[in-house]
Amino acid sequence: MQIPVVRNVLEANEKMAAQVRERLRGVLTLNLISSPGAGKTSLLERTLRDLAGEFRMAVIEGDLQTDNDARRVAATGAQAVQINTDGGCHLDSNMVATALDSLDLSQVDILFIENVGNLVCPVEFDCGEDAKVALLSVTEGDDKPEKYPLLFNLARAMILNKIDLLPHVDFDMGRARAFATRLNGDLAVFEVSCRNGEGLEGWYDWLRRMRAEKAGASAAKK
Question: Three-state DSSP class for 130?
């Protein structure tokens, strides 16, 4: 009896996601998904500061409680809005639609959605994004892509973060990359350190390409 209920919830989310996507027609929108502590906010802080001269960026922050991450993001000068789920394990398109009302989208080229820290629940819910981005830190197991395959199947990019800690952890970069790309042969993979900046230029170049692709698609629809 519960199967139709689950389907109805997901169908309702998909309908709202389509409306969100229409509102964001000219804005590159990326849904960042990772375990807690993998470095989503640190990545955003570096990205927002380093690319501030190129793009107008905004962030929707998803957390169970507090506005700590939104404050960190806002300190870069970017627009930021916090969603507190009060125990919910993921964001959905309705939450994102509400958050958009607090942003001036006419002043946004790239919107980042920092989802609740979780490798399972957020993956199934379309938030109206153009692409999902998976973050995996070297302080986690290198078998995460194998254990949580759906995210890595659906993501357009995977960021292997905190590579400055590799000398101090037991993490096989090649193994993690192989697991992920076996699941998704089109997956872009970036090995980065938000602490020292290593590898970030590859991530930035990918953002530039994605933004150009989005702008071109948007112009073609006009």
Answer: coil
